[in-house]
Design goal:
The protein is mainly alpha-helical. Helix content is 48%, strand content 4%. The protein contains 4 helices and 2 strands. Strands 1-2 form a two-stranded antiparallel ribbon. The longest helix has 29 residues, at 161-189. Residues 89-101 and 103-133 have low confidence and may be disordered.
Length: 191
Amino acid sequence: FSGENVIFLNYVRDWKAAWVKISESKPDYDWNRDSQYHRLHFFKIAVEIYAACVDLRTAEFPINIESQIYSDLTEMFNEAAQFIGQSVSRGTETRTYRNVPESYMMPTHRKKFSTVINVEEDTHALCLDAYPHESQSIMHIESRVPDHVIVPPNFTIRVFHQAERSIKNLVFTNTWPKFIDSSSDLSIHSK
């Protein structure tokens, strides 16, 4: 049921929450003046989100957003995302699922109904909400984007706003009703 949409929403939620947390803890912080510290870090993580969930070249399952939103995000992140594409193709092993950095991987076993489930390394991003610890936030990955990238002047906390709104609408009008319908179908067949 369109897991890529939920993953994208979780990544953006965590990214925005971290931005707000810094803004609240440092109310005098000038995001525009210090573009090479917090702003650079947030930009690099945003590029990782773009590469993992939006970019048609690097995302295994890109989210389905309107072409204008895609164009706007591509204009913002494409140049920096080139570095991610290079690091993925140069590596000896390519992480296919979302091409998330190795620093974002988690342990591979969980117990569920007394059965051990082995989760493939590439699908750990699907299990993020099972590990609600702050250390598992997208903000703690080691970005593959180098520090010398230029942060565009129009980069703000609202950079994913239109995509987030579009995906939420898609989830609530398409994915969620399909999930409910399938759940009711399963309960009817199990009787």
